[in-house]
Each structure stands twice: as structure tokens, then as C-alpha cells.
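Q: What would this chain look like folded?
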Amino acid sequence: MRTPAKLDELDLAILTAMHQFQKAGILELSRRTKVARATVQARINRMEESGVIASYDPQIDVTAAGFDVQAFVTLEIAQGALDQVSEELAAIPGVVEAYATTGSGDVLCRIGADSHAGLQAVLLSIDRTGSVARSHSVIVLSTVVAHRTMPLLRTLTPAGTTKAPAYRDQR
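A: My prediction, written as C-alpha cells:
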């Protein structure tokens, strides 16, 4: 497990700008944060290396793409079968994400389908895997809070002050 990165106010400002202006390049981020381009580039490189910035994949709305039936499925799996179920679930295209959990279930999955028949097909594929003993599903009716990260990051107590003089002066 990685040691959590210590983000300061400038890191949070850069991440905020990256979220607000997703197509912005380094120069534009530099202008928005009023910090030298090299500083922004170095901070982004550090956040990439530490895993804070995990990817630059586009955020895809599967509902808008035609997969408007979604469900959460809790799986109870055979003892010690987490690696096996991970491989089996990864092979099912309708499994959007899956997490090992505590509680009454062992794995929580989010699945997507283009119809109720498609949802049933994904559920049957999951149930046919050799490591799933039981599953329980709930259908998503609507999104109440979409996936987000910035509000959580803003709760961090920044790790000291930034060394970037231009950024310090604007606060």
C-alpha cells in the first residue's frame, strides 16, 4: 500500500482547476492558478507518481451511452476465492466496477445494461461463475449524488504552505 501523498493548498488548487477546466493544458492551468508552468508541471508529475492522479480517462456517462439500467449486486463468494472472482467478474462486460467489502457480502458490484433483459443476462453470468455462492441485487432508480472526489479532497488539512511565492502572495 502506498503512503498517502501530502497535498498542500497549491496541489488542491491545481486539482480543482483540472476538474473545472478538464481540457486545459499545463500553460492554461498555470494561468488559472497564477503559478509558473514548470511548478504546475512538477506538481502534476508528483501527483501522478504518487497515484493521486490515477488517470486521464474521460468520464463516461453509461446512461447517456445507452446503458440506462444499472444495479448494485452484493456477492457472497466461496472462502478464499477473491482472486478467482476478480478474474471472473473482469471477464463480464456488464460489470462496471467491483469492490471487496466487509459486512454480510464479500463483493459489491455495480453493473450496467441496456435493458432489463440485458440486466438479467449480466446477473445470470455473475451467478454462473464458480466462486459466487449467492447474490443479491438492487436496481438503481436515479442518481442522487454522482461520483465525485473534490469535496472529499477539500476536507484535507493542507500539508503546510506552498513554496511557490506567486501562489502564496495571492491568498
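The chain has a mean pLDDT of 91.
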